[in-house]
Amino acid sequence: MDHSHSLSPAEALATLGEGNRRYAAGAPLHPRQDLARRAATLPGQRPMTIILGCSDSRVPPEIIFDQGVGDLFVVRTAGHVFDDAVLASVEYAVDHLGVRLVLVLGHANCGAIAAALSGETFHGHVGGLVEALRAEGIGAGRHSPDSAERTHVRITAERLRRLPPLLAPLVSSGTVEVHGALYHLDTGEVEVLAE
Question: Does residue 176 lie in a domain region?
Answer without folding.
Answer: yes
